[in-house]
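Database export, one record per block. Field names are fixed; values are copied verbatim from the stored entry.
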Amino acid sequence: MDMINDSCSLTALVAAMPSMTSSSLVCRRGGARTSVSYPECHRDALLLAAALRRRGVTTGSRVAIHGATSYEWVLADLAVLLTGAVSVALYPSAPKDRAVATAREADCRTVLTDQTDCVAAFHAAGMDVVILGDGADAAPSVADLIGEAAAAPDVFEPADRGNGPFTIVSTSGTLSEPKLFAVHSAPLLYTMDRFAELYDFGGQDRLLLYLPLSHLPQRMMLYWGLGQGMDFVLSDPIHITTDSADLSPTLHVAVPRSLQHLHRRAQDIARRQGLDGADGGMAKAYASVFGTALKAVFVGSAPTDPALLAEMHAGGLPVYEVYGTTELGMIGLNIPGATRPGTVGRPIPWGKVTTDPATGEILVRTPTPFLYGEVLGHRIVPVVRDPDTWWPTGDVGAADADGYVTVYGRIRDFVALPNGEKVFLRSLEESAAAATGAGLCAVMKTDASHLGVLLFFDPASPEGGRSEDECRTLLKAVNERLHPWERLHYFSVVAAMPSVEDGCLTETSKPRRHKIEEIYGAGAQWLSVRG
């Protein structure tokens, strides 16, 4: 399968936008919804690209985009594409110092950001700064640049991009320090072609996006949808319920946390309207939250509660848990007619999945890895792909007799004890958190054979004042339900929450176990659970 033979596919789909007069992007500006047609979006992208070129952005330049999902983010990405430059997607939740360091590491000379408090830091790093939202005294806005280009029009020709990558993104950083890598459009667009076949959608559909566009799967769906003339709703976590109910998207992308939030909203509606227990009651409540035209809700990024998925399926909600990694792309899919809550579905039909017999690590053989090349200073070094190679995922799991894959956790979620047994830490952490009310728990080995748990409490929470004696009593009750070698021997109370700023959480709020152990575990004052 030769997929790296589409040198101008993204540029070509952008060039087709003016002919799609009936397609639009609905977005929020100042809290209000506005609609922008494809021809208008194409015009704005060309003007912004012309303005960026006048500011020195040329073929091969690196341009950082740092902000929440918005129309301006889309424009920035399209404009960078048209100039022949390579975009560098920065997480909007990244601390200022990390965002600047990542942009510097990627050799960016230009950055577009919606965070005005970062402007000075980017300037100090020698970067030209453009504001994605409202302008600031220290930097022009996207709207300013578009206005300037419109007032002094010249002929702008999109650059010949050749056949290289179009963007640089970061690994999640859950297992090690985040690393930058380059992505080519071909595997993304191929994956979306297969998605369209499996889930039966196309240009007639409307997709709601609210997760940051720095997440590669969001842009995968965005670019493919732009090529098909799909309508888009660019929302945010505050307005997703209103935008879903009002605009009735047919496709919705979620993470477990947002799915739980929307489920609770549907339950509240069902209770208020007396739909609880009524035949089809939850289906009506879900329609009030997700709209009336829904074809599919895709949920991924982290494990989803199987009971929640089963309940949603029972209420008629077409929700599908999918699984992939930033580097390898899609790996497992629940699809219509083949869905099993608690699993990530069967392997992608165009690839293969197995597990390492010694470690249980999930291994993938795929023609569509998103990883194109490693970023080494000013160079992008393509990764040579052997079609017979099994790629490690860093996840542990197993497939059942019907081929459905269950992901148990990350490799670091397991520790080996002297007796040879492997203990799954995440379930212990969930039990400890449920019992004590801790905001986050991290279990680790305190010596060769004993497990300890760090209990992180938000001081502002009701549980923030829990005493060590209370924690000890609650953990003893947890131990009574555990196998002897799983029991927690020690604990330590931390009156703070780990954060993105201290390096213990990724920009998507996933725990970085190795950093938690390094920062909090090494100096912990361990107390005996036994007393």
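Remark 1: The chain has a mean pLDDT of 89.
Remark 2: The chain is about 30% helix and 25% strand.
End of record.
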